[in-house]
Amino acid sequence: MKRLPLALSLVLVVALGGAACSSDDGPKIVVYNAQHEQLLEEIAPKFEKKTGIEVELRNGSDSELAAQLRQEGEASPADVFLTENTPAMSAVEREGLLAPLEAAATDPIPAQYRPDSGLWTGFVARSTVLVYNPSLVSEDQLPASIMDLADPAWAGKVSFSPTGADFQAIVAAVLDLKGEDATRRWLEGLKANGTVYDGNNVVLESVNSGEVATGIEYHYYWYRDQAESGENSDASELHFFGDQDPGAFLSVSGAGVLKTAEHPDEAQQFVAYLTSEEGQRALADSYALEYPLNPAVSLDPSVKPFAELEPPTVAVSDLDGDKVVELLSDAGFVL
Amino acid sequence: MGRPTTTVRRLGAQAARPPGVLVLLGLLVAATSLLPLGFVVVSAAELGPAEAWHLLTRPRFDDLLWNTTRLLVGGVALSLALGVGCAWLVVRTDLPLARLWHGVLCAPLAVPAFVNGYGWISTTHAVQSYWGAVLVVSLSYYPLVYLPTVAALSRLDSSVEDVAASLGAGAWSSFFRVVLPAISPAVLGGALLVGLHLLGEYGALQLLNFPTLTTGILDQYRISFNGPAATMLALVLVAFCLVLLGLEMLARGHRRRSRVGSGVGRAAARHRLGRSAPAWSAALLGLALLTLGVPLLSLLRWLVRGSSSSLPGGDLAAALTTTLGLAVAGGVLATVAALPIAWLAVRYRGVLVTAIERAVYPANALPGIVVALALVTISIRVVPSLYQTLPVLVVGYVILFLPRAAVGVRGTLELAPPVLEDVATSLGCTRTGAARRVTLPLVLPGLAASVALVSLAVGTELTATLLLAPIGTSTLATEFWSRAAAVEYGAAAPYALALVLLSAPATWLLGRAAVSRNPRRLA
After folding, report:
1. DSSP code of A100?
2. Contacts of A1 in chain B (CB under 8 A)
3. Which residue of A has its CA nearest to B386?
4. Do B336 and A1 touch (CB under 8 A)?
5. What distances in angstroms separate CA A91 from CA A37, A71, A300, B222, B419, one per listed residue?
6. Contact, A234 vs A208, CB < 8 A?
7. Is the CB of residue B136 less than 8 Å from the CB of residue B521?
8. Quick one: which H or E segment has residue B278?
9. Mutating which of B223, B235, B310 best tests the A interface, going by the most A Cβ atoms within 10 A?
10. What are the structural domain ranges in chain A?
11. Secretion signal: which residues (chain A) (predicted)?
């Protein structure tokens, strides 16, 4: 067994290689990041430069990281948790894993984008839209409400990504606004009418290439593609439902500090930076094109202005992720 | 294979009882290999009949079951037709340029199925259907039938056919009544491999938007982690694998295929294609366009356009480094783990040793997703400090690829029977000197080959890596995947190219091995 030490040392080399990027001069916070990886990779260095606090990102999806935090419990190395949508953050809040945020972090954000508990705060928002292909459905045929997409008239003309956290947040909003029975009927209609894809970029590409007439997703997929090359969006348009329709649901991305954070002060500073005018400006100017929630900052005017979205009123703590999974399962989208 | 060593052991000076340390190590490796199966059994017991029934009657389950079944039937059937047909053309007809065609027909193995799926879906949406899925996976996996069939046909004793012909059988009748039964173990073995690969396939089917049990497990995992739904699907998936193994054994049957005498050594007469030769060449060219042309041309097209972003030099280098590190660690560890198993099997036969050796092989039939799910669950429950760490990922690779290493290492150790060491000591060598100067040089090339073979497999593994790679650890496959799944086809292209290059050497070796014992018959 002469080769065993060699093998072990190789494993160690690999393991250390992974950790080597993190030298340990100065405080370092670990951020469990379910927001888009690229976005935080733009913001974190700015924060590091300003404060000297190092940021280690661990990227994953909403439910994956929420589940990981729940499994790790007190042993979690995480200082900060960032989500794309609120249900995963609420789940972690219910487990009692979050510490109250300091006023510096919450004050810049209007109260409707924060839970009453003060345990986390929204920091950016995304609007639900219907992306459509004008060669397959004309503007005057577009539905007034997202609920209409369950009508037989839309058979074969709608697509979405039900295994993703985004669509699940939209369903959660419909559930909150319309109640369980209406949501069940709506999902059954969508199941009959719709094409299921894996991922919102795939939805966009499929609509743009004429595979399917419309797709339910968030606004920024289309805008980002426009800003980049337009390759997957030039042949499609966005339809904003507005009018407080569930289809105008505004999903909030949340930021919270873990109770068990090893560097609680630095973690609070990080969230405060995200909500500060400076941090929000950096978010707004990034490729992300999500809406900043600090009223002092707004997006580039090429994106539909925040004030014109007319979203329905949905309390950020009210979204019930577990119930949504049950409804999606009954409708046959997931097991 | 083991017979000659039995004789050698009687002659040699080895004790019949294996050393305790070796047995302990063997038991440890065997137990690790059996972890995923243990996970499946324990989970089944924990779920309980009520919960299991509830999950099995969900509407989504019917879809996944139906899709998995029809993909298996269609994919295996098409792979069989392509694999056996092409093998016949190459080995048993006067097809021009047969050796060249052999290379072309093996080459699809160098394009991982998920890269092939990417090539197709970034070219046309038409493959997002049942038939599209069957076509794409068959184009990727038919070589698994083709290679063993070529090997079997090349080694077939042609005199049996001569007898059939002398008794009045025509070409077709002789093929179906004489040749096919003789090569059926190889063909069935290939079909089984295709079936197991189809059951474990994730990347290609996800890109083609064709949900099966395996893609369903990853969907559930993203929604509720290692919850009961993912576990239940894993159970059903393992049941599918067992059914396939059973079917293959049934089809193989108990017919005897031995013969008396050594047969004739000459090559079988090649069927003359005559005027249809150009048509068959054209058909093979068409196949090559589908298997290699579409994915490689689309890869090149995206490389040139690279529209999703500029060439990611830093990311690519980082992913390459991680991939190489993991590949070497996986290759070395799997080979090291195979050593005690193979050593025991070669030098000390016995009930316990046989049990240890056999315990390693079931993992061969387990999809990567099941191994990954098992390790996630076990590490969280039993050793939470290891959860989301590289050692768990490497252990996953070892379990998945240990069967390959074990076969290779065993074959290698058989080259160095103990009698050689006895001779060396009788000539004045010390025991360690004999091991160093006689045994080591004999086995080293084989061990290196085993490391290389496993490393190449690790380097292109996607499904288990997606679940087990610690957050923040990116391999070529996961980096490719995150881009391809986000429709950033241009940005995915450099990673796809790297994966193809990584798969090429193993493919070349396999292609050569299939005809190596009878090179003349292909010439």
Report:
1. P
2. 25, 336, 339-340
3. A72
4. yes
5. 21, 12, 33, 15, 67
6. yes
7. no
8. helix B277-288
9. B223
10. 27-125+251-306, 126-249+320-330
11. 1-19
Among B54, B222, B232, B447, most A C-beta atoms within 10 A, so best to mutate, is B222
B151 burial level (CB within 10 Å; 0-12, 13-18, 19+): buried
For chain B (523 residues), the mean pLDDT of every run of 10, in chain order, is 43 63 94 92 88 92 96 98 96 93 94 96 94 98 95 84 84 84 91 95 96 93 80 92 90 69 66 91 97 96 72 84 95 96 89 90 87 90 86 96 91 86 88 86 89 91 92 90 90 94 87 64 43
Give A126-249+320-330's CATH code, choosing from 3.40.190.10, 3.40.50.620, 1.20.1050.40, 1.10.10.10. Answer: 3.40.190.10
Q: Are B118 and B497 in contact (CB under 8 A)?
A: no
Q: What are phi and psi of B81, to 5 degrees?
A: -60, -50
CA distance A210 to A233: 11
- Residue A133 near residue A302, CB atoms below 8 Å: no
**Tokens at residue A23, please?**
């030298």
Instruction: Report d(CA B200, CA B237) in Å as an integer.
Output: 9
8 Å CB contact of A4 and B232: no
Residue A263: CB partners within 8 Å, gap ≥ 6?
A27, A28, A29, A53, A79
What ipTM does this complex have?
A: 0.84
Closest residue on chain B to A11 (Cα):
B329
Q: What is the DSSP letter of B365?
A: G
pTM summary value: 0.88
Please report, to the nearest 10 degrees, the dihedral formed by the alpha carbons of residues A150, A151, A155, A158 taken in order: -40
Q: Does B436 touch chain A (CB under 8 A)?
A: no
**Residues of chain B contacting residue A206, judged by C-beta atoms under 8 Å apart:** 125
Q: How many CB atoms lie within 10 A of CB A20?
A: 9
End-to-end, the C-alpha distance of chain B in Å comes to: 29
CB contact under 8 A, A68 and B340: no
- C-alpha span between A187 and B312 (Å, rounded): 41
Pairwise CB contact (< 8 Å): B222 & A61: yes
- Tens digit of pLDDT per residue, chain A (335 long)? 444 444 445 454 444 444 444 445 678 999 999 998 888 988 999 999 999 999 999 888 888 889 888 878 888 889 999 999 999 999 999 999 999 999 999 999 999 999 999 999 999 999 999 999 999 999 999 999 999 999 999 999 999 999 989 999 999 999 999 999 999 999 999 999 999 999 999 999 999 999 999 999 999 999 999 998 898 999 999 999 999 999 999 999 999 999 999 999 999 999 999 999 999 999 999 988 999 999 999 999 999 999 999 999 999 988 988 899 999 999 999 98
Q: Spell out which residues of chain B touch residue A58, defining contact as CB-CB under 8 Å.
A: 471-472
What contacts A307, CB < 8 A, 6 or more positions away? none
**A27-125+251-306: in CATH 3.40.190.10:** yes
Chain B interface disruption, residue of A3, A14, A171, most B CBs within 10 A: A14
Residue A158 — φ and ψ, nearest 5°? -135, 145
The radius of gyration of chain B's CA atoms, rounded to the nearest angstrom, is 24
Element (H, E) at B284: helix B277-288
Residues in B touching A72 (Cβ below 8 Å)? 384, 387
Nearest CA in chain B to A61: B222
Give me the sign of the Cα torsion angle B41, B45, B51, B54.
Answer: positive
- Contact yes or no for A79/A72 (Cβ under 8 A): no
CA distance A243 to chain B (A): 31
